[in-house]
């Protein structure tokens, strides 16, 4: 049931991505505005994910999971009924509440699973969260071709309603609680600086990067972000625990998640648009929605398969090497996409290799976070990691939109150079992520090991070691 919930949320992240151009035409809007169908969803998830994780830790993860699934259903209903771009974006923002599914699922695994099975279960859920995005892009074309784009919302609505019913019936309620109040001021400050930043990034190309509005929004974003950190550090019940964020194992994993999210979500948003560009623009494949989704299918497949195998690699070579390798593999393929604009097979191959890299990174990061914090903070800590990845995705989609649409052809389509510059920027994000990953604290081959006293081998890392099963060795997924 947890796997179904995580997959359903991930599908909603990407189902609309290949059909943004069709939504744009049907709702009579422009390319920059329709991008907020994706960006608004990611922004809402960025804000709601840590809040939902904290609420789950306090009042019960099962209860909050069911509530979040109902929220996803309501958002799908609003978006499915939308006849203009405003209600469509509102529906997608409501769906963004579903970002809380990931921390709640990780928390339930931590509370209910035998300790030796936690790494494998977390790795699988993390892989499903990433792979679902790719699968959504693949499924979007057939759904739209046979039923129409409104069914991109009706079908998830049906699935999430059923998931909420089944979750209520079969998932046990955890007895682990974190008795603390939830402050609204940090959430307000978080949402304010994110909105200011995303508006500046997405509209800077039109307004001018040195225009008064762009500079004012950027300065406001930095000022409010500083205020948010100040409030969080002094709050008796912070939304995001800044002391926890300072643990080397946590801040490095979160920094990598931010950069990988930046590149991954932007790629999801714009690779289909590149493929759908008609040949009259001088590039692109003139692909249908279904064809553009199939080009991304290799990424989803390799991401899932590698995610399942990543635990073995972590035991053999350690988590740091796995994460660095994954980032560099993805960077090389993204750089190839910046130059490979002539043949479809080049995109199939590049996307498959990107999936290998991202699959290695995401499944490993989730286990690092779950192992790094006390059990009662699993929900909020994993929520922060998912949240930071989503924030990265929000920024990445906005930056990519600004780069791609910075120069347009007379027919309104982006120039090829916009995509080239955009994909190179995403490759740079992966390289930077690899550089940050080099700072991940060194651990044993099993990721976290104990000495003969039973204490963590590296207690300064903020890591909590998993107990081996009786008569066996720890298992990692």
Describe this structure in words.
With 477 residues, the chain is mostly helical. The chain folds into two domains: 2-173 and 239-461, MFS general substrate transporter like domains (Growth Hormone, Chain: A, Up-down Bundle), CATH 1.20.1250.20; 183-238. The chain has 18 helices and no strands. It has helices at 2-14, 20-26, 31-34, 36-59, 61-81, 85-95, 101-112, 118-147, 151-170, 184-207, 212-234, 242-245, 248-276, 289-317, 319-339, 344-372, 378-404, 416-437. The chain is globular. Residues 450-460 have a biased composition (Basic and acidic residues). InterPro entries: MFS (IPR011701), MFS_dom (IPR020846), MFS_trans_sf (IPR036259). It is found in: Cell membrane. The chain crosses the membrane at residues 31-52, 64-83, 89-109, 121-143, 149-171, 183-202, 214-231, 251-271, 283-309, 321-340, 352-374, 386-409, 421-440.
